[in-house]
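[audit] Reproducing an earlier prediction to check determinism. Same input, same settings, fresh worker. If the tokens differ from the archived copy the diff job will pick it up downstream; this log only records the rerun itself.
[audit] input (126 residues):
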Amino acid sequence: MDLLENLTAIDNKLSHRHIDLDPNGYFIIYLDRDAGLICAKHFTNVIDDRGLAVDPETGKVIPAKGKVERTHTTLFSGRTAKELCVKIFEETQSPHVTMLDHAAYLGREFVRAEIALVTGKEYVQD
């Protein structure tokens, strides 16, 4: 197995670990290739006693996969991962992220999205 395969295997294994959800919400990350932007829609949620994210308005569990019809609270966009991180973590008054592991995850995802934007490859949020 070559180095890239080893690194991919490590990341794939880590993608299946348990994570606690941030009580201040979650982000859906995507590319706007026409505008040359990395976009991150922030959604609020409530964490129930089972540790599941629920819609604050309906109380229904938010599924991890599939299409969910919800309205985002904020849309952030940037041309680079760094620009997007500055907007979210330094330029906003209300904390959209309250957990360090969530912040680290977002940083990793924004870099992956930036690489996909620059190379033209597909970006799928982990």
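[audit] rerun output stored. Observation attached for the diff report: The chain has a mean pLDDT of 92.
[audit] end
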